[in-house]
Each structure stands twice: as structure tokens, then as C-alpha cells.
Amino acid sequence: MKRRNFIRFIGGAAAWPFVARAQQSGMPVIGFLSARSAKESANLVDAFRKGLAEYGVIENQNVTVDYKWADSHYDRLPAGAADFVSRQVAVLVSVGGDMTAKAAIAATHTIPIVAVFIGDPVAAGFVASLNRPGGNVTGVSNLNAVIEAKRLGLLRNVKSEIVSVCALLNPDSMTSASQQRDIEEAARSINLQVQFLQASSEPELEIAFKAMVANRIPALLVPADAFFAASRDRLAELAAQYSVPAIYTIRESAVAGGLMSYGNNLADTYRLIGTYAARIVKGAKPADLPVLQPTKFEFVLNLKTAKALGLTIPPGVLAIADEVIE
Prior knowledge:
This protein has 2 domains: about 15-145 and about 265-295, Response regulator (Rossmann fold, 3-Layer(aba) Sandwich), CATH 3.40.50; about 145-265 and about 300-325, 3-Layer(aba) Sandwich (Rossmann fold). It contains 13 helices and 12 strands. The N and C termini lie close together (about 10 Å). Helix 2 (about 40-55) links the parallel strand 1 and strand 2. It is elongated. The strands form 2 sheets. A 7-stranded mixed β-sheet has the order 7-6-8-9-10-11-12, with helices on both faces. Strands 2-1-3-4-5 form a 5-stranded parallel β-sheet, sandwiched between helices. Helix 5 (about 150-160) packs across helix 6. By secondary structure, the protein is of the alpha/beta class.
């Protein structure tokens, strides 16, 4: 309850005749490249379309959107970006993490790119500055790195006796090293020890949980990553199986059965990406569109999962939840 106010990644060959017809009729094409999968991103695509519509850009009426999904296989992203560039799409939208942004930026310095960034796009070298990104790249920075201390603090609030936590990292992600540094710094700031385990496939997720239990690590932090987002159902199942309280970055993980999540509203991020893509289709330049930052963060708590884990949620934690799933 509320507390407060590609279809598959196939290289595009099957879809090309439709795109060609759209281009021949003068309808611009937006290339939508995601590290995630189509099935688990349906609500985000809806939000993206809403953003387009805010500026009068309607899919299949005055613009075509061609989707490519890497299904968490990051090595597929460069080919997807290159295909969009070879076809001279009007805008290249890159979502699902910094690996997608990296592939898009490596593929073109001229076609406008609208990206979702996990961390600081300036530090990563994607843009010159947030206010004046320069070049052909802009988008939304989710600022996940700067709120890891908040996530760890919430874990301690619901399980006050913990002195150590485990954090998952995806070794295939370009952001894993910076995520490790951010989490280590956040853990030190609240006097927690942290152990890192790596996983980039479903079998490795189970291995990580077994290692966590074997080492008696009582809680888990799952940082932002396209693979972890796509695996949210499996992560929730494993957390329940091994009785591990965990915090995630996106609301969808708590809805899937995870204990709780804290982060920006991802659907709103995709809506904002849609507004920028629409503005560029209508003539705006990426260099003139500042990189946006989230202004709203959501704390979602799954009370049913808490009860299954035998946790009693303190009233103060319940009071600050934006959404409680019962």
C-alpha cells in the first residue's frame, strides 16, 4: 500500500523491412538498445513510451522504435549499437547500465545518444559535465553509487545485530570495481564489514548464496546491475531458500519477493529518457540537454517476506517506507 506522496537480440535482420518502410516514408527511427530482456522490462518500455508521448511523439504513428535486447549478455551490445549506427537512426537510446552506454558511445560520435547511467557519467568519461554534457550524449544518472550507505543502513535497521554483510558483484560489468569501492566506503562509514561475492549467471548466484551461508554472513546487498535486475525472481527465491535478508536497488525486486529495495523510481527514469528522445527527434541537441538526476527515491518493504524470514520490522522503519507490500 502507498504510504506517501530487439524482442530478442537477433541483429535486427527480421525487423529491417519494417524499419526500411518507415524510413522511406520519412518516419524517424529510434534505436532502443538494452542490456536487459524484453519480458522483464515491459513496464519500463511503457514508461518510455509515455515520455515520448509527452512531447507528441507516438510510436508507430510518427516514429518507429526498434528494440534490441542483450538479455544480460554484455558482449552483444557493441554489435547492436553498430547496427543502429549503420542504419543512421535518429536517436540511439541506451539503457540497462553503463555497459550499454559504453557500447553506444564507442559506436558513434555523431548520432544523438540518450543513456541511463548507473553512476557518475562525468567520472566515467561519458559526458563533459552534468549541466553541459557536450558532444552527442546526454541522459539520466541514477546516482546508485552515492546511496549505498543508505541501503546498508536500512539492512542494519531491520537486523540490528549484524556486523557484516555480503555484496554481490557482476564481474562482467564495467562498473563492478567502482561499485566495490563505493560499497566498501559506505560499509566503513557505518562500521560494517563487507565480503564480496561474484556472479554473472544463475548457477553462480546459487554458489554465492551457499558461500554466504557457509561463511555465516547474515545479510545481502544487491547493487545496480542489468543481470541482477533480470534475475530478481531467482534472487528472491534464493534469499528465501537460504533465509537471507537482502536489499536491492529497484522496486521490482521487492515486488518479486525480495525483502526491500531503496533507489530511484526506475519507471520515471525511463519516462525521462523518453522525453529526451522525443525532444531530440523534434530537433533538440544532446549537448543542450543537461544530464538529469533523480529527485525521488523509494523505500519499498515487503512485509510478507519479512514475516517469512522471522523479522520484526521496527516501527521507525515502517514509518519511512514509501510502499509496504503485504
